[in-house]
Amino acid sequence: MVDVVTQYFDVLGGLLLDDIYSQLEWCVQQDNEQLARSGSNCLEHLVISNGPKFTNEIWSKTCRCLTDIFNSTLPRQLITWKPGDYLDLEEMTERRESGHVSLRRFPSAHSINSLSSNSSRLSRPITSDQRIFSALQIRCVVQLELITTIENIVFFPATAKKEDAEALALSQGDSISLESGSLHYYSFDQDQGMYSHISSSHIFQLLDILKESHYFARDFNSNQEQRNLLWKAGFKGNVRPNLLKQETLSIACIFRILFRLYRDESRQDTWPEVERRLTEIGKDALSHFLMLESDAQKESWVSLMFRFLTRVHSLNDERFRTHISHWYPLLCDIVSSDLKPELRSVVRRIFLRIGPVFGIYYSGNGESYLPNSSIPNWGSDWVPDPCNQGLIDGVYLEVIKNKLLLSSSFGDLFFILVETH
Question: CA geometry: angle at 242 spanning 236 and 245, to 5°?
Answer without folding.
Answer: 115
